[in-house]
């Protein structure tokens, strides 16, 4: 079965709004609770943290980007931590997964394709980072996660308490299980 088109998804929204939606509390209103966990995970539909963690929509901040890289998603962490005055976030979780699209292409291939379309933007394109990485083995996956953890811990913009509460995992697409990646906190 083919994935739905945008028109079909938009029709689903109409049904959702009429049958399932419950109005959300606005920021700052009584009863509003902010999640304490932020999860960095991949945009790959096969690796949906909401699904494999059995989450409801309000239980964690889920930041999706190619590869689940903190290096390209740190702005989301800094935004939420600043918005909440450093009072909400307690845990940072990084989840990569096997057979990630980021392991099937390189930043250089993406940049070359973009420059072929828009050569006049070459200098701007050269500054872009897409978070691709090589990972054919478990150790290579672990090494890439360690790179993300180091990036986070080296950032002077991230609170020390958060740096101490980083967790990292690899999601196994075949078993559905998370494999913990040990590291020094």
From TrEMBL:
Cofactor note: Binds 1 zinc ion per subunit.
Keywords: Lyase, Metal-binding, Zinc
Superkingdom of source: Eukaryota
InterPro entries from the UniProt entry: Carbonic_anhydrase, Carbonic_anhydrase_sf
Amino acids binding Zn(2+): 42, 44, 97, 100
Catalytic activity: hydrogencarbonate + H(+) = CO2 + H2O
Keyword Mitochondrion in record: no
A GO molecular function held by the record: zinc ion binding
Alphabetical list of Pfam families matching this protein: Pro_CA
Listed cofactors: Zn(2+)
Enzyme nomenclature, EC number: 4.2.1.1
Function: Reversible hydration of carbon dioxide.
Family named by the database record: Belongs to the beta-class carbonic anhydrase family.
The protein, known as: Carbonic anhydrase
UniProt lineage: Eukaryota, Fungi, Dikarya, Ascomycota, Pezizomycotina
């Amino acid at each position: 079965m083919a994935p739905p088109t945008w028109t079909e998804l938009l029709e689903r929204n109409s049904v959702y709004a009429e049958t399932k939606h419950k109005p959300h509390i606005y920021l700052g209103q009584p009863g509003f609770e902010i999640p304490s966990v932020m999860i960095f995970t991949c945009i790959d539909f096969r690796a949906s943290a909401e699904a494999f963690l059995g989450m409801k929509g309000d239980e964690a901040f889920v930041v999706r980007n190619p590869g689940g890289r903190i290096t390209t998603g740190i702005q989301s962490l800094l935004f939420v931590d600043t918005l909440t005055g450093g009072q909400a976030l307690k845990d940072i979780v990084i989840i990569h997964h096997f057979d990630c699209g980021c392991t099937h292409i390189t930043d250089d291939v993406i940049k070359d394709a973009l420059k072929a379309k828009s050569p006049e933007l070459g200098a701007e394109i050269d500054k872009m980072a897409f978070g691709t990485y090589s990972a054919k083995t478990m150790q290579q996956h672990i090494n890439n996660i360690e790179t993300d953890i180091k990036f986070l811990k080296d950032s002077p913009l991230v609170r020390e308490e958060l740096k101490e509460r980083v967790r990292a995992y690899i999601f196994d697409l075949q078993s559905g299980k998370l494999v913990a990646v040990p590291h020094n906190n």
